[in-house]
User: Which sequence fits this backbone?
């Protein structure tokens, strides 16, 4: 999926790219405009943003939930024929180089501001390099990487423990679906308090999203089974509960009237697009071209990692120079897109190759000569 055009699934990559744009719009036009405690106001206590775009941008946070569904879908495909070490190597090659590049760029930008002292920027940068999920990160968007990594580790454990294959992945999916459904039943009944970072890292509130993606991938690959049907229903049920809870949290925090139907509708459209990926492949590639779709999919990850704090710093700088609010937001978004494209086109592949060579040399020192380099999808 992430290695180029060969494995591109058009609906997945385009949905992923649109999700990144939704999250960006949520931060710029809703969070920065309506909340006084965001990073924008740390970077520029004297600035304010126009609020008239918040009504359509506020539910963009649901793009992260769709990222988790896509992750379940893609991992179910890539892990089905993998051994644990090969699977973890591919995940490391996919996650680490971009995260290291983006966290380093963000650290350089933050070091030029007075938001945090240099030593705190350095500590946040180091925790981001190490994927240390319980400590403050260099950018708020990194919160979801800890969940992704724990999901990958759970898949790897199943691959090693139960012999691997698609069945091991689906066992992980049904476990996440059941645990997620039980968690939300107890939470709705008031028997559990709101989640904290530890609960999030255990995947309890978010397991249903990964399970939904795994179920959709299985349906795409080989059709309906009772296990996949149960996984999908339970996954969608707990996903719906999480979205309703988050919708209440965001609308209350942003001072908006409750509108849960909007993020639920966006989520439903996204899940439908993922589920219909097989049927959408030909028309989407005919309209957009496979190379553009593949590149947009690859851009998603760096765009997600750099847009938040770096975008806030840029918006503050533009506002202080008299740039109109909407122009400042759109300009910052454009710069982040160009930078994400540059990271994807110029930096990611060399960094990934360098890490692959380093891993291969270390493996060769223990296991003999390295074999053919693994694909990074």
Assistant:
């Amino acid at each position: 999926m992430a290695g180029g055009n060969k494995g591109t699934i058009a609906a997945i990559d385009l949905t992923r790219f649109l999700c990144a744009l939704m999250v960006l719009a949520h931060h710029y036009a809703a969070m920065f405009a309506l909340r006084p405690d965001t990073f924008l106001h740390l970077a520029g206590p004297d600035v304010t943003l126009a609020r008239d775009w918040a009504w359509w941008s506020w539910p963009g946070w649901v793009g992260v939930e769709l990222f988790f569904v896509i992750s379940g879908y893609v991992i179910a495909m890539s892990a089905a024929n993998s051994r644990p070490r090969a699977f973890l190597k591919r995940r490391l090659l996919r996650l680490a180089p971009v995260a290291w590049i983006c966290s380093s760029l963000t650290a350089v930008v933050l070091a030029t501001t007075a938001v945090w002292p240099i030593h705190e920027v350095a500590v946040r940068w180091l925790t981001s390099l190490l994927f240390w999920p319980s400590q403050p990160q260099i950018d708020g968007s990194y919160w979801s990487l800890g969940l992704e990594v724990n999901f990958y580790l759970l898949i790897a454990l199943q691959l090693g423990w139960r012999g691997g294959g698609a069945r091991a992945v689906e066992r992980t999916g049904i476990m996440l679906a059941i645990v997620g459904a039980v968690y939300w039943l107890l939470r709705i009944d008031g028997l559990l308090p709101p989640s904290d970072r530890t609960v999030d890292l255990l995947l309890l509130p978010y397991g249903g999203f990964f399970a939904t993606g795994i179920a959709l991938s299985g349906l795409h690959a080989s059709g309906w089974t009772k296990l996949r049907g149960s996984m999908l229903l339970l996954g969608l049920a707990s996903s719906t509960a999480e979205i309703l809870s988050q919708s209440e949290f965001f609308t209350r925090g942003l001072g908006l009237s409750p509108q849960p139907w909007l993020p639920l509708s966006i989520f439903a459209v996204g899940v439908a697009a993922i589920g219909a990926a097989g049927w959408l492949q030909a028309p989407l590639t005919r309209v957009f071209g496979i190379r553009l779709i593949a590149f947009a999919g690859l851009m998603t990850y760096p765009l997600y990692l750099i847009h938040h704090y770096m975008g806030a710093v840029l918006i503050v700088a533009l506002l202080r120079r008299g740039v109109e609010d909407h122009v400042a937001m759109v300009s910052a978004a454009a710069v982040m897109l160009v930078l994400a494209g540059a990271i994807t086109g110029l930096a990611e592949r060399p960094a990934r190759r360098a890490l692959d060579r380093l891993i291969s040399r270390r493996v060769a020192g223990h296991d003999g000569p390295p074999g053919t380099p693994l694909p990074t999808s």
